[in-house]
Design a protein that fits this description.
Blueprint (H helix, E strand, L loop, with lengths): L1 H6 L9 H8 L1 H35 L1 H9 L4 H35 L10 H27 L3 H4 L4
Helix pairs in contact: 3-6, 5-6
């Protein structure tokens, strides 16, 4: 600062470069935190809805499950019977959402000076995580439905 005053009549002002960069990306940090909150909220709501849907479906299909068990269906087959429609719906939703997400992310990332590309493994891992979370959430309800005693379920028929 003393050297600046010797050489120039202009007032001495400076900025730390890291602070300047942090200020430039503050908006992106806010967007990330906002998206994170809404992502967690939407996942919780989706899981609650999925659990409710599977519980309702298993309750409605108790007699069918009991009859299948009487005729020799294994727990694994009944488990697949209950979960197959949800796995198909999750796969279709992933197939629809992946290209749209990739396109929107490419558009957003291209606005930065040092743009990056998205690795396809990110989408694979997200889909696998979605499937695992769904199977964990509905797995207990499906297993409980497979363990029903057919005599108790079918006694009033």
């Amino acid at each position: 600062e003393s050297r600046w005053k010797q050489l120039s009549l202009a007032p001495f002002s400076y900025k730390i470069y890291n602070d300047h960069l942090r200020a430039q990306y503050r908006q992106e940090e806010r967007i990330v935190s906002l998206f994170s909150i809404f992502t967690v909220l939407s996942i919780v709501i989706a899981v609650i809805g999925l659990v409710g849907l599977v519980a309702y479906s298993a309750e409605q299909r108790k007699k069918e499950i009991g009859i299948r068990k009487v005729f020799g269906a294994t727990r694994g087959k009944i488990y697949l019977l209950i979960n197959r429609p949800y796995v198909v719906l999750l796969a279709v939703s992933l197939l629809v959402a992946t290209p749209l997400t990739w396109y929107l992310m490419q558009q957003w990332l291209s606005t930065f000076a040092y743009a990056i590309t998205i690795d396809p493994m990110v989408f694979f891992m997200a889909g696998a995580g979605e499937l695992v979370l769904a199977l964990i959430c509905v797995g207990y309800l499906s297993l409980r439905a497979t363990m029903l005693n057919p005599a108790v379920v079918l006694k009033d028929e």
